[in-house]
Specification:
By secondary structure, this protein is of the alpha+beta class. It has one domain. The protein is 35% helix and 28% strand. It contains 7 helices and 8 strands; from the N terminus they run αβαααβαβββααβββ. Strands 1, 2, 3, 4, 5, 6, 7 and 8 form an 8-stranded antiparallel beta sheet that branches. A hairpin with a 3-residue loop joins strand 3 and strand 4. The protein is globular, with a radius of gyration of 18 Å. It starts with a helix and ends with a strand. The model has no long low-confidence stretch (mean pLDDT 89).
Length: 226
């Protein structure tokens, strides 16, 4: 299986989530409920309230035309993915981690993904922080939900920033991962805010809505992307 995948001229491996039912779960259930909790806690109003209203109305078109958000997968309104492995075309050599990922990859296999939190930067990006039931190359597994004036890989920048700095959410990340690894039962929800200031994020408000560990799970299909 691994040698067959290596011989394929793919760009990346992913877990794909697609279809109307998935759209309703991702947008109208998980994202909407998280945004309501964030807004109720911090009273954001403005475009956040507009986004909540449009999600409540299931008015996907106006989310794009009026608020300027785009969907990350070629702007398809019912298609998201979690990257499993991105192929390094510049190097023919594979790390042991890459070998392990490729050995475990089975095309069209159904994989369960635990949605741990929604990360939200108003008028910029909404992304799920996730833990899939398979090995992945990204340190911070994620599903980019909506983007505005940035591309989908910006999720990596955001997650690395907030989870690797003590002044943001590093302690919360360590707590989430320890709960996952130890299978603890006291994994409660929380909602927090920070202001990010670095070379790519200039005084940006960032919100995290952490879910109970077993609240939201998605099932996706492993896919080769060319």
């Amino acid at each position: 299986m691994m040698s067959n995948i290596i011989n394929e001229k793919f760009n990346y491996l992913s877990i794909d989530f697609q279809g109307k039912e998935v759209q309703e779960i991702i947008l109208n259930k998980i994202t909407l409920e998280a945004l309501k909790k964030i807004n109720n806690t911090f009273n954001l109003k403005g475009t956040t309230q507009e986004l909540i209203d449009l999600l409540t109305e299931n008015n996907i078109e106006k989310i794009q035309t009026d608020l300027g958000y785009k969907f990350p997968h070629k702007n398809e309104k019912d298609h998201w993915h979690l990257t499993v492995y991105f192929k390094n075309k510049k190097s023919p050599f594979l790390s042991q981690e890459a070998i392990n990922i490729l050995e475990g990859f089975q095309k069209n296999q159904i994989v369960s993904v635990n949605i741990l939190a929604l990360i939200y930067i108003p008028d910029k990006i909404l992304t799920f922080f996730c833990k899939p039931d398979c090995m992945i190359s990204n340190k911070y597994g994620h599903i980019t939900i909506l983007i505005k004036d940035v591309n989908a890989v910006f999720s990596n920048v955001v997650l690395e920033t907030i989870f690797e700095n003590d002044q943001y959410f590093k302690k919360d990340y360590d707590h989430m991962i320890s709960l996952e690894n130890n299978d603890c039962s006291n994994n409660i929800e929380f909602i927090k805010h920070c202001v990010i200031n670095n070379f790519e994020l200039n005084e940006e408000d960032c919100f995290i809505c952490k879910f109970d560990r077993d609240l939201y799970k998605l099932e996706g299909k492993m896919k080769l992307n060319f």
